[in-house]
Design goal:
This protein is of the alpha/beta class. The protein contains 7 helices and 6 strands, in the order αβββαααααβαββ. The chain is about 40% helix and about 10% strand.
């Protein structure tokens, strides 16, 4: 008796559901990703073999280079709260719109008296404005110490934790410039902080 031949049928797989899921995941990652903020200064980081990941929240980053100091606090809520505290101390009024625009600014390197003009500008204008002369760190006008203090208070009040501090200094920056920043931190009893370096292969 001859074998019965089973007719082979081609399989068709509906990929519609898989495509929908792929696009949903792609959309989710695009919307939730945070863009890397450009560095305020072109600096060459010192090298190191020690590796530790810098946290992306509840941290302040102090960038030092070319005799200037820039300050950055992560988190829009922290930036807004810090600005409000600085405004109260220096008796400067900021509108709701100015606070909102400030919360979107990454690194800050202008004296407080020029901050209103700086906030009104767009990113391109800020770069070419000449206002980014660095945050004052003089003993008679130590605005950096106030930015650090108020941002620490904002992190403690809003997130219930201690703010971490990282120093990102140019490899060619003088020792006295970095020591001045370290002295400010130590006066606020911040004896533990990170130095941002570039990776180097261990030989």
């Amino acid at each position: 008796m001859p074998r019965v031949k089973i007719q082979r049928k081609s399989l068709s797989i509906d990929m519609t559901a898989m495509t929908d899921v792929a696009f949903l995941l792609l959309t989710f990652f695009i919307l939730t990703a945070t863009a890397k903020q450009p560095d305020p200064l072109e600096i060459k980081l010192p090298s190191s073999t020690y590796k530790i990941k810098v946290p992306d929240k509840d941290i302040a980053i102090l960038t030092i280079g070319k005799g200037k100091v820039f300050f950055e606090a992560t988190g829009q809520d922290i930036r807004t709260a810090t600005l409000e505290k600085m405004a109260a101390q220096y008796k400067i009024e900021f509108s709701v719109e100015e606070k909102k625009r400030f919360s979107l600014i990454g690194s800050l390197g202008v004296p407080l008296q020029n901050l209103k003009s700086f906030i009104k500008m767009d990113a391109a204008q800020r770069k070419s404005s000449g206002l980014e002369t660095g945050i004052p760190v003089d003993s008679t006008n130590n605005q950096l110490a106030d930015w650090i203090l108020h941002s620490r208070q904002a992190v403690a009040e809003l997130h219930g934790t201690a703010m971490r501090v990282s120093i990102k200094g140019d490899a060619k920056e003088g020792y006295s410039s970095v020591k001045k920043i370290v002295d400010i931190l130590q006066k606020q009893k911040i004896n533990k902080f990170s130095l941002v370096t570039t990776g180097e292969a261990i030989r």
